[in-house]
Write a structure and sequence with these properties.
binds fe (ii) ion, 71% helix, mainly alpha, 282 residues, globular, Hypothetical protein af1432
Length: 282
């Protein structure tokens, strides 16, 4: 059998992801929440009531808010409170992240922890630099690697083989993805994010977190996620698919005007917050 050219594999994967061939469509409650947030007439009370209909989702949303946004301090105890503190758009991202957690099985826990750590890191970088709203940055961090979820669901065998080969060879994940699958998780993440109708402000950091300079808009968010991704990988919390840590993208540092002192402060806070998350989970 002749091997499929990389371009064909890419097109096949794109179609698979766009059709949600193996990926689940979002639960009805999540779809309704996304629609409600987009409608101008919805009130916080109505939105909270919709989310609270699903007790399991509510519990996960609150847990996520308290770990990714407020360092497991249990500050936020109701969905209405989360809506007041974080705003509709951010809660939409949190609801989405909480339901993505449901799609992940136990073998994907490393990826979930990496995503959570990146969400926390992105909030801290945004806070340190004042480059964007920390809560919005956190959602971008939580969702940045959904392309890997797409690969795991759509081509599980190939992707597991690829991860295993990287573990042995110590090559860069992104390069091997392109070589084996014809595309990388950043592009696959964009396809999935579009299929799930996520807003452009979230799609761009997902698409460009490994190359923020290429993002025409929202380069700042992509840069924040790039920095948070590198910092959480070097911290070692979770597992993103490979152990190799790239340096922070020079453009990301420049566009955030990030100093060594800023990085040191973020690393120190990140270490403290990850400790709290681990203690809460122990
Ligand atoms: Fe990534
Ligand atoms: Fe990542």
């Amino acid at each position: 059998m002749t091997p499929t050219p990389a371009g064909d594999r890419r097109d096949m994967l794109r179609r698979q992801i766009q059709r949600l061939t193996n990926l689940p469509s979002l639960p009805l409650v999540v779809q309704r929440v996304l629609q409600m947030v987009d409608s101008t007439s919805v009130t916080g009370k109505e939105l909270a009531a919709e989310i609270e209909q699903d007790a399991a989702l509510t519990a996960r949303v609150l847990k996520l808010v308290n770990s990714a946004f407020y360092a497991s301090s249990g500050v936020v105890s109701t969905v209405s409170h989360a809506l007041v503190l974080l705003g509709f758009e951010v809660v939409k991202g949190v609801v989405l992240s909480a339901s993505i957690f449901d799609i992940m099985n136990s073998s994907m826990m490393g990826l979930w922890e990496h995503s959570l750590g990146c969400g926390i890191g992105a909030r801290l970088v945004a806070d340190q630099t004042g480059a964007c709203e920390p809560e919005e940055a956190s959602v971008s961090g939580l969702l940045h690697d959904i392309g890997k979820l797409a690969f795991i669901c759509e081509v599980p065998k190939s992707y597991n083989r690829l991860i295993e080969a990287i573990r042995v060879s110590n090559h860069f994940l992104l390069e091997v993805e392109v070589e084996v699958l014809g595309t990388d998780h950043a592009e696959a993440g964009e396809w999935l994010a579009k299929r799930w109708n996520l807003p452009d402000t979230l799609i761009r950091p997902i698409r460009w977190h490994h190359d923020p300079k290429a993002s025409e808009d929202d380069a700042v968010r992509a840069a924040i996620v790039n920095v948070a991704d590198v910092l959480i990988k070097s911290h070692g919390y979770g597992f993103s698919g490979d152990e190799k840590v790239n340096p922070i993208d020079p453009f990301a540092r420049e566009c955030l005007q990030l100093t060594i002192d800023d990085i040191e402060k973020v690393v120190e806070k990140l270490t403290g917050e990850i400790k709290k998350v681990q203690m809460a989970e122990a």
